[in-house]
Design a protein that fits this description.
- The chain is α+β, with helices and mostly antiparallel strands.
- The protein has one domain: Alpha-Beta Plaits (2-Layer Sandwich), CATH 3.30.70.100.
- 26% of the residues lie in helices and 29% in strands.
- The chain contains 3 helices and 8 strands; from the N terminus they run αββαββαββββ.
- It has a 6-stranded antiparallel sheet, with helices on one face. It has a two-stranded antiparallel ribbon with strand order 5-6.
Amino acid sequence: MKVPLWIVPFLVVVVAASSVMMAGMFSIPSVTIEFERETTGNGQLNQVEMIVDGVTCVDMAKTASVNLESLAGVKKFVAYASHNRVVVYYDPEKVEINDIVKAIEDPVFFEETGEILFDLYKVVEIEGKKTLI
């Protein structure tokens, strides 16, 4: 049986395309940080999903969470660095989405080194909607 010459390149393209599509379905978080906070009211947490320029690796994802530590109402931070995606779980009675975005985009101060890092992150999308640049 003779195999047509086009079959091998065709199979390579099909396998490559299916791997790219499947990668989005099986995302594993790069970083998950839970903050010790009490929730108010019924204890119901909301979540907000954002695309954040600058969250490109595990270390940058951890750094993006630094300012959220001091923000009352933020319960959990999950980052998917390979997709620049961040999910924040928060208590809507204590904090608003705008406060979360501001905390992520604010300069980051490291007490142990005394460094202040500016313009590390930019939230470019919130819940699938582009933000103003």
